[in-house]
Design goal:
about 160 residues, mainly beta, eight-stranded mixed sheet, four-stranded mixed sheet, 2 helices, 12 strands, globular
Length: about 160
Amino acid sequence: MKYIFFISLVFLISCKEEKVTPSMLCMSIDVGLNISIKNGQGEDLLSSVTKSYFPFEPMKLYYDINGRTQEVYNPLMDSPRNISLITETSPYRLSVSTYDGKEGITSDQDGIQKGENIAYLKLNDQITDTIRTEWEAGECYFVNRKLWYNGVLYDPIPEVIEIVK
């Protein structure tokens, strides 16, 4: 009985209340987009059952960082190229993470930063699409406010952008 009391006492003493810091509450929201790609006949160009589809494996994503184009690749991430193929939907979708860095700052007022970023989605050796975003960031958030896909403005940004190739 003494041992149970002693172990319980040690356990209670060792428990600490963890303080929640602002950095624990910070988040990036709306830094990605979902894209479906179809041909002129409405067929899913991300599905291998469609003739002339876009295979996922060779797709690449690039970010324009301070005027330099850099390929996205981090083997430690679940999606090393910041692109995922979602096959649970019909049509299939690409989930693409737009860059959430703050290099493209255009204004900074009252602790709110605003800026622009550009990403390039390489679908294959012949086709590369351009994704431009206007973003806003505070001390504890980052969000895309406007998005242009190949020059077409999406404001507000829809849940899925449907592209016809």
